[in-house]
Design goal:
Blueprint: H1 3-21, E1 25-28, E2 37-41, H2 43-54, E3 60-64, E4 68-70, E5 75-78, E6 87-91, E7 94-96, H3 101-105, E8 109-114, E9 119-122, E10 125-127, H4 131-138, E11 149-154, E12 157-162, E13 165-167, E14 174-177, E15 180-185, E16 188-190, E17 201-204, E18 207-217, E19 223-225, E20 230-239, E21 245-250, E22 259-270, E23 274-280, E24 288-302, E25 304-309, E26 327-340, E27 344-349, E28 356-367, E29 374-378, E30 380-389
Parallel strand pairs: 1-3, 2-4, 3-6, 4-7, 5-8, 6-9, 7-10, 8-11, 9-12, 10-13, 11-14, 12-15, 13-16, 14-17, 15-18, 16-18, 17-19, 18-20, 19-21, 20-22, 21-23, 22-24, 23-25, 24-26, 25-27, 26-28, 27-29, 28-30
Length: about 400
């Protein structure tokens, strides 16, 4: 299935879900004992509301009215025993983690959904209060926990996230893992530019995912695309601060699924470390990247606007120092313009044993402080059309 069909399928799915949701039976978390005062632990109330909704035979809505709800610990919403295939979380309030980062920091996820079908999250704010944990990590202190992803969907299908705001996640903000037919729209992510490992939206081992009209300010990748991602559409996204939109890092494992059929349209990058990036570790791998389109992007003082890095090794510590086994092919960059933060605005550093192929540049215009911009190519084959500045090294 190509990306256009993926987009059509996901949008139609979500329209049908919204029509059904209008008649949903409502479970109000206040009725289960939740307190909107920001101080009383409301975990059990959310668990009980989920259990009630899950046991229903009809379309249901879990209502979270205005207020601040303390959810200090990890909560797992499981769907393998649910009767209904249509549960909507209507969040008008703010869900907050404990101010003591150690309580949540030992968990992998804060709010996680596993094996659910037909779950929609509408509105609301997640405040994971991750600033203290970032400070611990940035100070290179011993004993800092890894931290938790704020929202994670695993092995699920027919998922919608609309209008959600995620603040100060300890680790990743939103993770989509092993899912099918996912629609994300109007999401806002906000974390400090130096917050470590706080990727905005991470997708992997999934298919038919669409992300629209999203604003991400964070300390790592705005959108990160992991192994096994197929049929992804990203459109109207603003990124900055952050590390850009990245496919990878790949080649973490010898046996690894590929990334294919990815389209990114109308992306804006402001002051980011990277713009459009594909990265893999320099080690053997069965992985690949194929059928990627980067179309209509604007860069404003982006350090590395266009980059393929198959010698990825942050900090140059314990680098594998081998040739990447990841095969990168059929990648299009069309209508990319703006300003680079460095003289080398385009850098293709590909694998010696698996050179990049089918790399295309169409109408690319990047400048650097009114100076001559450069491109750099290693082990790459491709072509250009239209005006391409800097002059192509393909």
């Amino acid at each position: 299935m190509n990306v256009t069909n993926c987009l059509y399928r996901v949008v139609i799915l979500m329209i049908l879900q919204s029509l059904v949701a209008e008649s949903a039976f409502i479970y109000n978390v206040l009725s289960f004992g939740a307190k909107p005062n920001g101080a009383t632990d409301s975990t059990q109330a959310f668990v009980d509301a989920w259990s009630a909704a899950c046991a229903s035979n009809d379309s249901t809505t879990i209502s979270v009215p205005k207020g601040r709800y303390l959810l200090p610990s990890a909560i797992k919403f499981r769907g393998d025993k649910c009767k209904t295939l249509d549960i909507t979380f209507q969040i008008d309030g703010t869900l907050i983690a404990s101010s003591d980062y150690r309580i949540l920091g030992q968990a992998n996820n804060w709010l996680s959904f596993e094996r659910v079908t037909g779950v929609s999250i509408i509105g609301g704010t997640l405040d994971a209060k991750g600033t203290a944990l970032w400070a611990c990590k940035l100070a290179a202190s011993t004993g800092c926990p890894n931290g938790a992803t704020s929202l994670r969907f695993t092995n699920s299908k027919n998922i919608s996230i609309n209008g959600l705001t995620s603040l100060n996640s300890q680790m990743f903000h939103i993770v989509i893992n092993g899912c099918q037919d996912v629609y994300i729209r109007g999401v806002k992510v906000n974390a400090a530019g130096n917050s470590p490992n706080t990727d905005g939206i991470h997708v992997q081992l999934s298919r038919n995912v669409a992300i629209f009209n999203t604003s991400i300010k964070t300390g790592d990748d705005c959108v990160s695309i992991g192994p096994g991602m197929k049929d992804l559409w990203v459109e109207q996204i603003s990124c900055g601060p952050g590390h850009g939109i990245s496919i990878g890092s790949l080649a973490k494992d010898l046996e690894e699924e590929g990334v294919q059929n990815v389209t990114v349209r109308n992306a804006n990058f402001k002051g980011t470390q990277n713009g459009l990036r594909i990265k893999s570790w320099p080690r053997p791998s069965s992985g690949f990247v194929q059928g990627v389109q980067f179309i209509d992007a604007v860069m404003l003082n982006v350090q590395n606007p266009i980059v393929i890095d198959q010698n990825y090794c942050p900090g140059n510590i314990n680098c594998p120092a081998q040739a990447s086994g990841v095969k990168i092919s059929d990648v299009l960059y069309r209508n990319i313009q703006g300003t680079s933060g460095r003289a080398v605005a385009i850098k293709f550093d590909c694998s010696a044993t698996n050179p990049c192929s089918g790399i295309r540049l169409e109408n690319v215009s990047l400048t650097y402080r009114n100076q001559v911009v450069q491109s750099h190519c290693t082990n790459v084959n491709g072509n250009t059309s239209g005006i391409v500045q800097p002059n192509s090294c393909l």
